[in-house]
Design a protein that fits this description.
eight-stranded mixed sheet, disordered N terminus, globular, alpha/beta, Rossmann fold, 205 residues
Length: 205
């Protein structure tokens, strides 16, 4: 599947997103963290990259990597961008922390042609086991926080997001389901710990 050589140093979700992005594309990463994915895209795909990130230290790391990153809340940081200024907008492992999901996804699809969304699956079997058998809030590799310090404000499953896309008439170009270092093909809502959806607006948008 990947043209890029898989590496233990590069996260699987980053490898998948790397493969999706076309060479020379204009890319905006919402919640870009320390800029690892953008750095990979800039170096390997000659992509024209920008990031939006709230944390000070992460911004400093982006600057060290030569990444053009702006310090802002991703829920309000897109209003200055004109329509379709980016080829791809990435919202990877950030959506579950967003309060206005509808608004942000609409804005992302306004400023970009394609939206790549990655999120942890709260219906993963290990999370179900911890909740229903142990009676405790789930902690897994993709959900590493305790209940009292988690940044997550949304607790969604793969099926939830599939329903969301249908209800909002979003066109799913592709969906990839992951568990640690493997791709999941069977019953992903149960066996995948995270998902990546590649989206475009539907006919109604």
């Amino acid at each position: 599947m990947f043209k890029m050589k898989p590496s233990s140093e590069v996260r699987l979700d980053h490898q998948i997103i790397y493969e999706v992005i076309e060479p020379g594309a204009r890319v905006l990463d919402l919640g870009c963290g320390e800029g690892n994915l953008l750095s990979l895209l800039a170096e390997g795909k000659n992509a024209k990259v920008q990031g939006i990130e709230l944390e000070d230290q992460a911004i400093h790391e982006c600057v060290k990597k030569g990444i053009n990153a702006f310090q802002s809340d991703i829920e309000s940081g897109l209003k200055e961008y004109p329509d379709r200024v980016f080829d791809y907008v990435i919202l990877n492992q950030s959506m579950q922390e967003v309060k206005q999901v509808d608004f942000l996804i609409n804005e992302a699809l306004r400023v970009g042609r394609i939206l790549i969304v990655g999120f942890p699956n709260f219906a993963y079997w290990k999370a179900r086991y911890m909740l229903f058998v142990k009676g405790k809030a789930p902690i897994t590799r993709s959900l590493p926080y305790s209940w009292f310090n988690t940044p997550n404000v949304r607790f969604l499953s793969i099926k939830d997001f599939q329903d969301f896309c249908r209800q909002r008439n979003l066109k799913v170009l592709k969906a990839i389901y992951l568990r640690e270092k493997t791709i999941v093909h069977f019953r992903p809502n149960l066996f995948a710990s995270e998902a990546i959806f590649i989206l475009q607006p539907g006919n109604g948008h």
